[in-house]
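INFO batch 0412 | record 1 of 1 | parsing
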Amino acid sequence: MFRFSSLVWVVCENHGYHQVEGLQSHQRLLAEGAVLTNYFSITHPSGPNYRSLAAGRYFTKNELLGEENPTFASAANVPVTVWNYRGKPARRHNPFFDLKNQYDTVDTLAFDDLPERCLLYVGMDDNNNGHSGPLSVADDNLMALIDGLEASSWFNREVDGRYPALFVVWDEAYTASNQVFAAFLGRGVQAGAKSDVKLNHFSFCRLCCENFGAAPLAHSAEVETIDGIWIE
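INFO prediction complete | emitting tokens
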């Protein structure tokens, strides 16, 4: 199931779906991309949720595991770049550090220099990702990211019939349901689409495994993949 050629992935912090759906960047994702309206985090605190996204399991509730374990990127041999986009992400917010996967780190980035097949993990520190700083700052950061991607030739370049995609998600919500905002954007995504299928962080891991050619990892094999939002 080949849905995107490369993936740009950004995680924001500690707000539920209804707390952030009105942000300018999220209204833009609703209009230009596809939103998963029935999507949930796995647990608390942050670290286990990042592991569930990348590896299909949360292992323990410790903020850091610090042991080598496969992620969808390592299982599919996809090169990973961690971009310190707005500051350096905390270690608990970088699953590739936590799970001892190989990756490159950059402080500056030109989208058009990225390879045709890659994972770009967009890092932000806690003042910029919604954790400690105002939501307006996280919103501005996401708007600038979307602007930069859409202006780049790399994000609009077809590779074997597919295009890169952006995935924006919040790690957890301090609400009873733990429902979080999650959305995709890209030329291979149906603009304005919504999926009301019940999904969670394991579903994202399953999608990425399938897309990049790896068997679903751990609990991701037990959940629905993310479908119904793609341009066939």
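INFO post-check: The chain is about 25% helix and 20% strand.
INFO record closed
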